[in-house]
Amino acid sequence: MRRMGILEQYHSFLPVTPNTPRLSLHEGNTPLVHLERLSETWGVELYAKMEGFNPTGSFKDRGMVMAVAKAVEAGSRTVICASTGNTSASAAAYAARLGIRAVVVVPDGRIALGKLSQAVVYGAEVLAIEGNFDQALTIVRRIAAESSEVTLVNSVNPYRIEGQKTAAFEVCEQLGGPPDVLAIPVGNAGNITAYWKGFREYFDSGRIGALPQMHGFQAEGAAAIVRGEPIAEPETVATAIRIGNPASWKTAVEAAKESGGAIDAVSDEEILEAYRDLTRMEGLFVEPASAASLAGVKKARQQGRIAAGTKVVAVLTGNGLKDPSTAMEAVPVKPVRLPNDWEAVEEAIRKPRGA
Ligand code: F0G
């Protein structure tokens, strides 16, 4: 099947007009992978929606292609966003594709190296503030509100949600119907909002006959929704979801409530354990924030909140190469340094690993 990105593939569900630029970097159409070993270990039928396969390595591309296309359609020549990294990489790429300006505001020193390098190399203007994501978002919202020439492309821009809902469509097509449970990391809470909108639209159009339960997972040190109040200084190894006051808080809670699901928290330890399980048992490398959904599935199974045999899709939001530093810290086994010598190498592989 010929697929040309989500604007073409799903135009009938999207606000695409004859004047919308035909923008695409071949986002969407990401694999849904059956996790056979983890399914067996955890007693569920588990699939991973591999959003790291998108052109800039995260799910943000689905929303960004729509938001940047609509910005240009409306005559804007500058997009701006706050970001923990992935949004900035994606905004920078799509802005470059259409030859417009991208300004990204990030928390200084707190975004993964891969993401920062993407924003820089795509040619965005990168402003690193002495503050966190929530503070950066406050700043860019104000700038966009005060200038009609600058378009805000964070997920408070409704076109971002429109684009991102297409992942729910794909899940239903790939699975031949909706899953019982959709497990998803929650940061600024745009993506859980988008999936729920997508599932409901497919349900309303008669394409699916049931709706999944939405299970969102925040990192414990940044679990504002779970605690019921904003967190001034959020902290987690999963820097992508280090957010203390999610902009789409209300719609995330609605998604969980209406679907009979929940928003819960997972610890950094649980996140890193799921991160290692996924790479070693399934050969799939995602970034730490993505592993929050898997950690959540494991925890919910142990607590009996997800029943045995449940068909679960975990959204794995970003590619593991985004955050090489955490990868090197997360595993005890390091590369073995040896002289340039045949015998030394032979000797090293004769010994079992770690001995
Ligand atoms: N996973 C990854 C890899 C992310 O980058 C993000 C958000 C999320 C999950 C959470 O999604 O915000 O829609 O609830 N990253 C944003 C950014 C905040 O700036 O790149 P959400």
From TrEMBL:
Residues recorded with modification N6-(pyridoxal phosphate)lysine: K60
Keywords: Amino-acid biosynthesis, Lyase, Pyridoxal phosphate, Threonine biosynthesis
Reactions the enzyme catalyzes: O-phospho-L-homoserine + H2O = L-threonine + phosphate
GO terms classed as biological process: isoleucine biosynthetic process; L-serine catabolic process; L-threonine catabolic process; threonine biosynthetic process
GO MF entry, a single one: L-serine ammonia-lyase activity
Protein's UniProt keywords contain Iron: no
Cofactor: pyridoxal 5'-phosphate
NCBIfam families named among the record's database cross-references: thrC
Similarity remark: Belongs to the threonine synthase family.
Name listed for the protein in its UniProt record: Threonine synthase
Classification of source organism: Bacteria, Bacillati, Bacillota, Bacilli, Bacillales
